[in-house]
Amino acid sequence: MFLYFAILFVVLYVVCIRCISHRYNRTFLTSRIQLLFNDSQHQIGVRDVKETSLPSDEVRALFVTAHPDDECMFFAPSIILLLKQGISVHLLCLSSGNYYNQGALRKNELLDSAAVLGIPPSQVTVIDHQQLQDGPKAEWSIALTSSIILKHIQRNSISVVLTFDEGGVSGHANHKALYKALSHLAGTGQIPHGCHILALNTISIFRKYISIMELPISRLIPSDLCCAMGSKGYNQAKRAMFSHRSQLMWFRHLYICFSRYMYVNTYKSILPAKKDFKIY
To answer: Quick check: 78 and 90 in contact, CB under 8 A?
Structure first.
């Protein structure tokens, strides 16, 4: 009897996943993403993929990452689905990933990965600054990081910025630095009017490594934006991961197989509130 109920539960759960995935893919392909807040103070955040008055060809999304391969390891579902909407996607990577002296190689791998995801080379920028070096213990200057990001936002008339949250997904110090920089910009009122910031939610280890099985959980937990894709999008994200050949250690293959971030992204808004950050 227990086995019968276990099998029934698994079947129903799989059906639930397929229904949710189909709904999100269909909604993304037939509607516009709601990117504008409804009030001037940004008190109402991005809710879900719904109709909006903002034409997709006027939206410019900027993904801010710390290292080459972040774009496909963590943000692939968002990038792929936004591009399907006809939204212009830009990528700003704040380091060349030179931790093992492979910076030049990793820059080229990033361009290959971006091409697989659908981002043109002209919309990919890699920063190679002496004070912004790849390292799990490296302390990036908030002033420098926020200055670079702000200039990129202004120069490209960006509508929405997507980056890591305070947990950095993996806990990497460079990931967290991006959140601090954008929180500083939002908290000090430097973000241009009409531009909004979304932070990728860090989740528990259990949820992180149950692959697409995590999708119903993400749907039940409130978020400001949820991007979910099926097997076709996953295969595209996997090809992008394989573009980073220098990083394909055994554990990366496990990540590709089991990570929820290969299928689902959920975000929260970074609202313009005062933040107590030390600027150095």
So the answer is: no
Other beta carbons less than 10 A from residue 46's beta carbon: 21
Tell me the per-residue pLDDT of 174-226, one tens digit each, with 9 for 90 and over.
Answer: 999 999 999 999 999 999 988 999 999 999 999 999 999 999 999 889 999 99
CA-to-CA distance for 74 and 128, rounded, in angstroms? 21
* Of the candidates 169, 54, 72, 166, the residue with the CA atom closest to the CA atom of residue 124: 72
Instruction: Report yes or no: 185 and 235 within 8 Å, Cβ to Cβ.
Output: no
Residues contacting residue 41 through CB under 8 Å, at least 6 positions apart: 272
What pTM was estimated for this model as a whole?
A: 0.85
DSSP 77-144: HHHHHHHHTT-EEEEEES---GGGS-HHHHHHHHHHHHHHHT--GGGEEE---TTS---TT----HHH
CA-nearest of 216, 266, 231 to 14 is 216
Altogether, the residues listed in the chain come to a count of: 280
**d(Cα 172, Cα 161) in Å, to the nearest integer?**
20
Q: How far is Cα 50 from Cα 260, in angstroms, rounded to an integer? A: 23
What single-letter amino acid sits at 187? G
